[in-house]
Amino acid sequence: MEVSRYLPLLLLSVLSIFQDALSDLTQMEARASAQIMWTADEIAHLCYTHYSTRLPKQGKPEPDREWTLLAAVVKVNSAADPKDKSSQVTKEVVSMGTGTKCIGLSKMRKSGDILNDSHAEVIAKRSFQRYLFHQLRTAVSLPQDSIFMPGTKTGMWKLKQDLHFVFFSSHTPCGDSSIIPMLEGEDQPYSPVCSDGVSSQSAEAISDPVVLENKRKGEEIPAHLITKRMRTESKDLSSEILSEIAMHYSTGKEGSLQISADASNSSSPANGSAAGPATTKGTVPVGAKVVDIYRTGAKCVPGEAGDTQKPGVKYHQVGLLRVKPGRGDRTCSMSCSDKLARWNVLGCQGALLMHFLEEPVYLAALVIGKCPYSPEAMKRALIDRCQHVSSLPRGFQVQELKMLQSDLLFEHSHHAVQAKRANCPGKIVPCGAAISWSAIPEQPLDVTCNGFRQGATKKNIGSPQARSKVCKVELFNMFQNLIRSISENKQPESLRVKKLETYWEYKVAAASYQEAWKTLQKQAFGSWIRNSPDYQQFK
Predict the structure, then answer these.
(1) Contacts of 499 by beta carbon, 8 Å cutoff, 6+ apart
(2) Strand 433-438 relative to strand 445-449, pairing
(3) Which of 69, 224, 237, 240 is most buried, most CB within 10 Å of its CB?
């Protein structure tokens, strides 16, 4: 009698677990089929076209003098039947960002009305959050027009099963992903670092644009990076070499690059293919010689081991957390490699949106434009550093992010602009503006400079007119407007248990997200720099 009494509850529990597992499997199959039906070049072309046709001249680099970085999030609808060759996967740019700058600690504000980090990847992600807020507002009133569908709990939502998102960046993310082996080529206009620490290496051959930014600002960087460009009649093929050849290497015990020149073991995946598992013994292409590594300008955070700064391939320690440099004023902004690795575990939605979501919004794939690139460095930086993380809350997990490279060059990249003016006097410089664009009906475009809306004066700083639409306080306003649009009895439980007021309080109340973040910090990112709660007490 007792067993029959609890049998219906047991069956319901088993059915619920089975449905969850089936739902996860369906989503994985949909993402896998969609990824087969588009290429890296298609994603890059879509983003470049959007940039050139949908974004105005305002905020773009000055022709033949300035360069910038581009990043975007592309929504892919995989509802098409993969067996039907006539059906097509639909792709749409839903957010975009450009930018190369960061502000220093001294310029940070406790009112949340300034952008601390204006690198393209971060702007694109924050613009994506604007898009997600808008889609949740739409889901409340017109569910059929939204990317979200009702979840199993009151006030909670989840992505429709036929959707996933691809992140595009015109350049390898700054930080650990940019530490890439450098080959000796006949036409390369630079030479390797010598044993005495002196080098004739050109700054233009450095992988990470952050280093170039430091060079322009005159910030202190190692002497071997501040060298005059060697005169040569041959063109710079350093970017082409590494974008055409996949570099293989393994990480040593101390985190330095271990590279083997065993040509007989050489192999290189086709350009645009997904990064495979890390090899235990690295290889280089037949006849090629690794003479150095591309460097990153991002600096090791306090508490990490630090770079050896030894000549050649041992200059950097790999796998370390890094912060973006500033103009003589150290920043608190983690490198884009570190942030992407974090998003790959916690999702791109952030803490506030997790109040409304049953599971994080993950990226299914990452596409990089034509530039110095290594699939192994990308995998190491974005996946492997967190691969061992366990005991995450339900719905959170380390994603097996699909990573590909396009063969298409961004028109306003450092390399493209430099090539156009190869014989012209003067230096090219990074564009000072950052562009934010979101696929939303109201004020989709936002152009900022030095963390504030472009054109802001000292007189109106502190007013809404000076704010970027993707700064903390503006995203918090979108969050509060979303709450107000939902009757209290239909709001998520996390927003009904107690009265919350400040940005900080709402973030902390997103329990599952905070638990996942604490787990990630404890097991992988213990030295991550976190801003003081004092900077998040605004309402």
Answers:
(1) none
(2) antiparallel
(3) 69
Backbone angles phi, psi at 95, to 5 degrees: -155, 155
* Mean pLDDT taken over the chain: 81
Which residues are the active-site residues?
Answer: 121
pLDDT tens sequence across 38-62: 999 999 999 999 999 999 999 999 9
Tokens for 409?
A: 């060059």
Count of all residues that appear for the chain in the document: 539
Q: What is the pLDDT of residues 400-453, one digit of tens each?
A: 999 999 999 999 999 999 999 887 888 999 999 999 999 999 999 999 999 999
- The CB-based long-range contact list for 115-119 (8 Å cut-off, 24+ gap) reads 115/434, 115/448, 115/451, 115/452, 115/468, 115/470, 115/471, 116/331, 116/332, 116/333, 116/451, 117/324, 117/331, 117/333, 118/434, 118/448, 118/451, 119/69, 119/174, 119/324, 119/333, 119/336
| Three-class secondary structure of residue 115 per DSSP | coil
Instruction: Report residue 242 as tokens.
Output: 């590494």
Q: How many CB atoms lie within 10 A of CB 86?
A: 6
Of residues 75 and 268, which shows the higher confidence score? 75
Tell me the residue type at 188: Q
Q: What is the helix (H) or strand (E) element at residue 381, kind and residue range?
A: helix 375-382
